[in-house]
UniProtKB/TrEMBL annotation:
Family listed: Belongs to the binding-protein-dependent transport system permease family. CysTW subfamily.
Protein name in UniProt: Spermidine/putrescine ABC transporter permease protein
Domain of life of the source: Bacteria
Localization terms from the record: Cell membrane
One of the record's GO cellular component terms: plasma membrane
Amino acid sequence: MYSRRSRFLTIMLILGLAFFYIPMIMVVIYSFNDSKLVPVWGGWSVRWYQVLFESEEVWSAVALSLKIAFINATCATILGTMAGLAMVRFGRFKGRTLFGGMLVAPLVMPEVITGLSLLVMFIALNQLFGWPGERGFTTITIAHITFSLAYVAVTIQARLTGMGETLEEAAADLGAKPFKVLTAITLPRLTPALVSGWLLAFTLSLDDLVIASFVTGPGANTLPILIFSRIRTGLRPDINALATIIILAVAICISIAAILMFRQQRADMLDQQMAAREDT
């Protein structure tokens, strides 16, 4: 009975992974299609990568998306780390429950609602203060930081909860000031979570379409908006090439984050083993 159940779960897992990854594999394969028609195979070729690299419109969108993603990831990591520290290390304070609820709200809020509310806010600010003068780079960056910091905060919270406060309390007992404890012990131990949170925020920014479409303006097309606009007019083979490059970039980022997390977990296990041996 147990073997049948295990076999069934294995088959379902394989089917689920195949359903998710086979379309991506097909996109990668058809990015090397020589034919101008996406569904028709015309032999192996890299011509569409050449067309892609010669497109100024695509590179402009890539540059804008990367710039927004970098600023968003950096600001979201700083703010998310501060929020995570407040939730885990500051104990219970007045308004903690409300603060925690507002912090995780972007995780469950539909993107359409988030984008619409940000659009209304920017319009109101423009009418009251004359800022922002136009929607584009600044408004998209602020919008991305708004929802990205929630993901970073959750990542930092999980890491802080798991690593405990023993070393921090020991440093405080030895006379270290709170800022010294933060910079010399807490933040270095949070490095894998900080890197993971930064990469996650960076990827979320590159991937966002719905919120960016609400808060952008004429002439400020991010990469997802450009891809969506081209798909609406019909599939083009160079889109497959662009999607392949994005898949490769995301896979590299995820691999880096996974390696860093694995190394940190292994180091923590070794520290715990050493501490157990010293106690015995």
